[in-house]
Structures are given as C-alpha cells and as structure tokens.
Design brief:
By secondary structure, this protein is of the alpha+beta class. The chain has a single domain, classed as 60s Ribosomal Protein L30, Chain: A, CATH 3.30.1330.70. Helix content is about 15%, strand content about 30%. It has helices at about 65-75, 125-135, and strands spanning about 1-5, 30-35, 45, 55-60, 85-95, 145-155, 160-170. A 5-stranded mixed beta sheet has the order 1-2-7-5-6, with helices on one face. Strands 3-4 form a two-stranded antiparallel ribbon. The relative contact order is 0.27.
C-alpha cells in the first residue's frame, strides 16, 4: 500500500511522527508501507545447475521483482513526464523493532525504554538507496544522475515503511 502527497496535497492518515526540517518544502512525498527492501548483488553464472558451461554468461538481478513492485505501485502517482532538473531527495527507511526490543510476560507488546532508535545492522543504507534510485529511474526522474542532494536515515519504528521525499532544486545564479 502506498500513500502519496503531491505538490503539498493532503497527507496520509496516521503519518509518522517523524519531524523533518521543511517537510512541506518537498514537491512529492511517497510513503510505501512494509519493510524496506535493499538492492541485491547482481550475479553472473557461467555454468548451469549441473556444472555444464553455458553458451553465454547469465546475468541475474535478484532485486528485479522488488523494483518492479515499487514501479507498479508508484506508476500512476508519478509526474506525466519524468523530472529532468536537479533533484533533492530525503529517504527514511523505517524497520520493525526486533523481538528483543519488547518486554516479556505482562509487558509483552510494550516497547522497552532501551530499544534503539537507529537501525545499525544490515542491510546497508547504500543498498537501500540504490534500489529506490533504480526503481524510480524513468518514472519520477529521467536518470538518477540528476539527483544532486541526498539525505537518508535508517531507523526503527512501530510501522515499517519507506518514506521518499522529492524536491526540485531551483538553481540560483551566482
């Protein structure tokens, strides 16, 4: 499920309590519910499963279905024509808390005060970013080379999701 706020339109019900600097300055806000996905490492196979050499090397993208799913969800919310100007992005990856972050017994389901705020284990933030960049190429922007400013955050939250904020950067003459 996805909620999208475009051009300062209405926000999604139950939006996160995460306070961002100048959140309303962003032109597009996408909230993709569910645990964040990362870009998998591409694989090249030269032999089949029986060990016989292949005629041509086989290139496999393990994240192609995750990218395709994200594209399908945002396709009808994207601009008519992909953006072709400098862009600023803020990406917030919210992961579910771990089982050990909750109490036990009568405190089951209650988050411990010692639960961490930031997600400091795998997946790496660069692989999370790469999946978003690749999936939205040709849909929200012409190519990810036009992204000139980027801010990202990996954190824990009660509602797992990925938040994508997109802003067109107005170039100032010097």
């Amino acid at each position: 499920m996805i909620w999208i706020k475009q051009k300062n339109g209405p926000t999604a019900p139950g939006d996160s309590e995460l306070k961002m600097n100048n959140e309303n300055d962003y032109d597009y806000k996408l909230v993709v519910l569910g645990g964040p996905k990362s870009q998998g490492r591409h694989r090249t196979y030269t032999k089949d499963k029986n060990g016989k050499p292949l005629k041509y090397p086989l290139q496999v993208d393990p994240s192609k279905y995750d990218k395709r799913s994200l594209r399908i969800v945002v396709q009808d919310k994207a601009p008519e024509k992909p953006l072709d100007c400098p862009l600023e992005l803020k990406l917030v990856f919210c992961f579910p808390y771990r089982k050990g972050d909750y109490g036990t017994g009568r405190n089951a389901g209650i988050l411990k005060s010692s639960a961490p705020k930031y997600h400091t284990v795998k997946p790496d933030v660069d692989n999370l970013i790469k999946l978003i960049f690749d999936a939205l190429n040709g849909i929200f922007w012409r190519d990810d080379t036009i992204i000139c400013k980027l801010e990202s955050e990996k954190r824990y939250d009660l509602r797992p999701r990925t938040e994508i904020y997109i802003k067109e950067v107005k170039e100032q003459k010097q």
